[in-house]
Amino acid sequence: MFKHLFKMIWNKKKQNSLLIVEILLSFMVIFAVFSFALNSYSNYAKPMGFNYDKVWAISYNHTLETTNPDSVTLVYQTLLRNIKSMPLVVDASYHSGNVPFSNNHSTTGLTQKGVQVTGINDFFTDENYVSTTGTKMLSGRWYNKTDAITKSTVIVINNTLKEKLFGKADAVGKMLGDNPKTRQKIIGVIADIKNDGDYQVAAPALYNRHDTSAYKWMGKILVKVSPEADAAFEGKLYKLMAGSLKKSNIEIEHLDNKLTAYNKFTLVPLIILSIVAAFLIINVALGIFGVLWYNINKRRGEIGLRRAVGAPGAAVSAQLVYEALILATLSIIIGAFFAVQFPLLNVFDLPASVYLFAMLFAMIFIYLLVLVCSLYQGKQAAAIYPAVALHEE
Amino acid sequence: MLKNYFKIAIAVLKRRKFFTFISLFGISFTLTILLVMTAFIDKVVNDNYPDKKRDRSLYISRIELRGKESMNSSGLSYSYISRYVNKMKTPVKIAISSGFGSTNTYVNNRKIVINYKYTNTDFWDVLDFEFVEGKPISKQQTDNAERVTVISEDMKKEYFGDDNSPAVGKYIEADNIKYRVCGVVKSLPITSYLLYSDIYLPITTSKTKLDADKGYMGGYGAIVLAKNTGDVEKMKKEYAGIVAKLPIPGKEWDHIYSHADSYIEGYVRTGNEKSSGMVYAFTAITLFALFVMLLPTLNLVNVNITRIMERSSEIGVRKAFGASSKTLVYQFIVENLILTFLGGIIGVVLSVVVMYFINDAQFIANLNLSLNFTVLGYAILTCIFFGLLSGVYPAWRMSKLNIVTALKAQ
C-alpha cells in the first residue's frame, strides 16, 4: 500500500515538493524554539545554589587619599566590622565586581594535566561569603581566619569546574593547574551558583581568597539582612557607607531585583521568538489546510470512483491522511538531517539531550499539525457521494 | 486595462474566501512583524533627540589596547581627552561626559535609584536637549564647581512627586550631596545609552580628581562637533592620525585602537576590534527578516499556485483567443500585487495597534514607537518585494499551461 501511496505522491512531485519545503522549514523553526525553550527550562529546573533573598550588593569605588597600605586595609576592615555590627545585618563580605546577576564578568583559563579549560569565572571574596549567601560546601571547607591573607596557596572551586577537571573523583587536597609556580591546593568544592540568572547554566568558577591589596579594586560588599530590613534601614546603611568612604560613589542594589532584570535578557527573546513562531505556524497550518482542501476538490473524480467500486469512507479518508503523513515524514527526515548537525558539531554548546528532545517534540508537533489538517479533509472526502462526484466528471 | 485587472482581482478574492483569508493573514502578519522591527530600529538608530547635529558630530567613546594574549577595552580617561582630543583643530566644540553610573537616595523612607552623568559646558551646546523648565548648566557654574544639576522629567516626577510645581531651585540629593536643580529636560529612553541619564552634573563636581588618572582608560567619552558636514571626514582623519601616534602604554600591548565614529558606527561598536558591530548587527537583522519572510512567502506561492490552477479554464480560454504568455503573467502579477497591498494595508493597521500596545505597556520607558514616512516607505517596499516574489513563480507555471489540458480540465 505504501508503494502505491508513494507513487501517487511522486506523480504530483511539483506540487508536493513545495509543500515538503514548507513543512521542512516549519520543522526547523519549531526545532529552534523548542531547543531554546528546553534549554532554558532545564537550566531553570536546577537549583539556584544560594539564597539571594534579602542579600544586598553595595558598590563602592576606591577613592581614599592615603597610599599607606596598612591604613587602607584598616579603613576597609573597620568598615566591614561596622556594617556587621549594625542591627538587622546577618553577615557581610567583600566581593569582586562580578557579583551574581550583574553584567560584570571576569573570566580566566587554566590547564590541568594538559586539558585546557576556559571561561572560568574568577571570584574574589572573603571568609564570610558562605554565611552571607548561604551557599553549600559539597566537600572540604571554606576559607577561615587561619588562611594566610597574603599570597594565597589554597583555593576553592565550584562543582562544575570539579567535574570538568576531576570527574567523579574527590578534588579536595589535589593541586590545581599545571604551572608549578602558580598552582594552588584545592581545599573545598562549593555548590554551583547560577550566576547569570535562572535560565543560564552555571559556569565553572574559582573562588579566590582576596588579599589586602584587593580592597582597592573589588568594589562590592554583599550584605545579608534580616527580613525586617526596609528602606529606612537601607538609608542608614547608605549613610554609614557614605560616611566611611566620603569620596566614593555608593549604590545599594537588591539581588532579587537584579535577578528579575537579568532574567529578562533570556525571557524576552524567548517570548518574542515564540510569538513569531506561533504566527508562522498558524500561517503554515492554514496553508497546508488550503492546499489539501484544493487537492481533494481536484480529485473528486478519483474519490468518487473509489467509492463507487466499494471502498468504504474510512478507507478513502485514511488514504488522504496517510498521504499527508508521508509528506510530513519526508520533510522530517530531511529536517532531522539538518537538525542532527547541531549536537554533532556542538553548535552553541548546548547539551545534546536538549537538541534530541527538541527534535522529538518538533517531530510530534509537526505530525499533530499535519494530522489535524488532513483529518478534517479526509472526513470531507469520505462524505463525497460517488453519484454526485462521477456525475460532474 | 489596469481597472479590468483590478475588477478581476477583486472578483477572484471574493470567490474563495478561505484562500483570501490565508493570503491576507500571511501578508499582514509578516508585514506587522517587519514594521514593528523597523520602527524599533528606526527609533533607536534614527531618533535625533537630543543630538540633532548628528550629521556633523563624531562620537569618541572607547579605546582598546590589544596585545598578543590580552585585550582591554573601555571608555576614555579625562586626562586622555584633555591631552589628545582637546588638541584637535577641526572640531568647533567638544562635548565631554561620563558614562552613566547609578546611586541611591532615600526620600521619606522610599528608595530612589538615580543614574548620574558628569558633563562639561560644551555638552549642552553640542546636544539640543529640550528644556521643560530652567536652563543648562552655565560655563561659570562649571568653572566654579557649583553643585547644580539638570534633571530629566521622569526624575522630577519620581523625586518631587506628580504635581506640576516647578522643580528649578529645589534641591535633589544624590550620592549624599545636595544639588540645586537648574533645569529639567525631556527624558531619553535608555536605548540611547551614550546620552541617557536621570541627572546631569557639572564635570568639575566629580568626586574623583579629573586628571588623577594619567592612563588612557577611564569612564568618559567625547562628542566632537565639526563646523559643517564637509569637515566631518577631515575630523575623522585627524583623530585617526592622533591615535596612530599614541605612545603604547606597556610592553604587553602592541596595538591601540580608538575611533571617531558616526552615531550608528558608535552605537553598534562591540568593544572588540576584531569583530565589527556593523557587520554583526546587519547580519542578525537580515537573517531574522529572511527567516520571518521565507515561510509566509512559500505559503503564498503554494496558495497562489492552487488558486491559479483553479482558474485553468479561464486561462485556457484566454490563451485560445490569442493572449500571449506575457500578458497573462503581467495580469497575474498585477493581481497579486493588488492582493499584497490589501494585506499591506491590514498589516499597517495591525502594526499601529501593536505599537500602541507596546508603547502603552512601556516595555522600555520613553521609547515610543511610531509609524513615520521612513517606516511606511519600508512597508511599501516589502509589499512589492512580497508580491513579486510570491507571484512570479505561479504566474510562470500558469503561462506554461497547455491550452488543451487547461480547457479539458473543466
UniProtKB/TrEMBL annotation, chain A:
<dbReference type="InterPro" id="IPR050250">
    <property type="entry name" value="Macrolide_Exporter_MacB"/>
</dbReference>
<dbReference type="Pfam" id="PF02687">
    <property type="entry name" value="FtsX"/>
</dbReference>
<feature type="transmembrane region" description="Helical">
    <location>
        <begin position="267"/>
        <end position="294"/>
    </location>
</feature>
<protein>
    <submittedName>
        <fullName>ABC transporter permease</fullName>
    </submittedName>
</protein>
<feature type="domain" description="MacB-like periplasmic core">
    <location>
        <begin position="23"/>
        <end position="231"/>
    </location>
</feature>
<keyword id="KW-1133">Transmembrane helix</keyword>
<keyword id="KW-0812">Transmembrane</keyword>
<keyword id="KW-1003">Cell membrane</keyword>
<feature type="transmembrane region" description="Helical">
    <location>
        <begin position="352"/>
        <end position="376"/>
    </location>
</feature>
<feature type="domain" description="ABC3 transporter permease C-terminal">
    <location>
        <begin position="275"/>
        <end position="385"/>
    </location>
</feature>
<feature type="transmembrane region" description="Helical">
    <location>
        <begin position="20"/>
        <end position="38"/>
    </location>
</feature>
<dbReference type="Pfam" id="PF12704">
    <property type="entry name" value="MacB_PCD"/>
</dbReference>
<dbReference type="InterPro" id="IPR003838">
    <property type="entry name" value="ABC3_permease_C"/>
</dbReference>
<comment type="similarity">
    <text>Belongs to the ABC-4 integral membrane protein family.</text>
</comment>
<dbReference type="InterPro" id="IPR025857">
    <property type="entry name" value="MacB_PCD"/>
</dbReference>
<keyword id="KW-0472">Membrane</keyword>
<feature type="transmembrane region" description="Helical">
    <location>
        <begin position="315"/>
        <end position="340"/>
    </location>
</feature>
TrEMBL record, chain B:
<dbReference type="InterPro" id="IPR025857">
    <property type="entry name" value="MacB_PCD"/>
</dbReference>
<dbReference type="InterPro" id="IPR003838">
    <property type="entry name" value="ABC3_permease_C"/>
</dbReference>
<feature type="transmembrane region" description="Helical">
    <location>
        <begin position="328"/>
        <end position="358"/>
    </location>
</feature>
<feature type="transmembrane region" description="Helical">
    <location>
        <begin position="278"/>
        <end position="301"/>
    </location>
</feature>
<dbReference type="Pfam" id="PF12704">
    <property type="entry name" value="MacB_PCD"/>
</dbReference>
<dbReference type="InterPro" id="IPR050250">
    <property type="entry name" value="Macrolide_Exporter_MacB"/>
</dbReference>
<keyword id="KW-0472">Membrane</keyword>
<keyword id="KW-1003">Cell membrane</keyword>
<feature type="domain" description="ABC3 transporter permease C-terminal">
    <location>
        <begin position="287"/>
        <end position="403"/>
    </location>
</feature>
<keyword id="KW-0812">Transmembrane</keyword>
<feature type="transmembrane region" description="Helical">
    <location>
        <begin position="370"/>
        <end position="393"/>
    </location>
</feature>
<keyword id="KW-1133">Transmembrane helix</keyword>
<protein>
    <submittedName>
        <fullName>ABC transporter permease</fullName>
    </submittedName>
</protein>
<dbReference type="Pfam" id="PF02687">
    <property type="entry name" value="FtsX"/>
</dbReference>
<feature type="transmembrane region" description="Helical">
    <location>
        <begin position="21"/>
        <end position="41"/>
    </location>
</feature>
<feature type="domain" description="MacB-like periplasmic core">
    <location>
        <begin position="20"/>
        <end position="238"/>
    </location>
</feature>
